[in-house]
Amino acid sequence: MTANPIGMLCVKEAGEAGVRMGEDQLHEPMQGMAPNRPANERARSRVQVTGTAQVRRANQQVLQGRIFDVTTVGISIYLDIPLPVNESCELQLSVFRDGRVHAVNVRSHCSYNLLIGGKGFRNGFQFHSVSAEASATLSLICA
């Protein structure tokens, strides 16, 4: 058994079939992956909502966006531009859910951006330094 450069274990067996994974290794979780959870399943469920967002960048530029979905630890927002990954931002959110508008202010950083044809860029944000009030509101939205 050897470790490759990215830390995943593999078993090398020489033979006519070449190098292959040992059968006993097929059911072990890969490093960084939660056991008993498929790779495409998230730790927290995303809730699709409607709403608006103001994204205040580090250079004080304010962008207007539309909210796509939210969890208690992050959100995805449609913007006209892609933000650089890891850029810190302040988010002012107005989330429409269950007949009410929920206002949340939270610090975050951009974790990804995707070009979505005809809709602009879907930017994902991970929350950090979340106040108790914001956490309670996010939990209410995601319930």
Assign a percent range to the helix content. under 10%
Q: What share of residues are in beta strands? A: over 45%
Within CATH, the superfamily of the largest domain carries the name predicted glycosyltransferase like domains
Radius of gyration, whole Å: 20 Å
Overall structural domain count: 2
Give the uncertain stretches in residue-range form.
1-35, 37-42
Instruction: Specify the biggest β-sheet.
Output: 6 strands, antiparallel, barrel
Morphology call: globular
Mean pLDDT: 78
Per DSSP, the total helix count is 1
CATH architecture of the largest domain, please? Beta Barrel
Give the termini distance in whole angstroms: 45 Å
CATH topology-level name of the largest domain: Thrombin, subunit H
Q: State the total count of DSSP E strands.
A: 9
Largest sheet, spatial ordering of strands? 4-5-6-9-8-7
If you had to describe this structure to a student in words, what would you say it looks like?
- There is one protein chain.
- The chain has one helix at 132-142; strands at residues 2-3, 9-10, 47-48, 50-57, 62-70, 74-79, 88-97, 100-116, 120-128.
- The protein folds into 2 domains: 1-39, no CATH class; 47-142, Thrombin, subunit H, CATH 2.40.10.
- With 143 residues, it is mostly beta strands.
- A 6-stranded antiparallel barrel has the order 4-5-6-9-8-7. A two-stranded antiparallel ribbon has the order 1-2.
Summarize the structure.
The chain contains one helix and nine strands, in the order βββββββββα. It has one helix at 132-142, and strands at 2-3, 9-10, 47-48, 50-57, 62-70, 74-79, 88-97, 100-116, 120-128. The protein is globular and about 30 Å long.
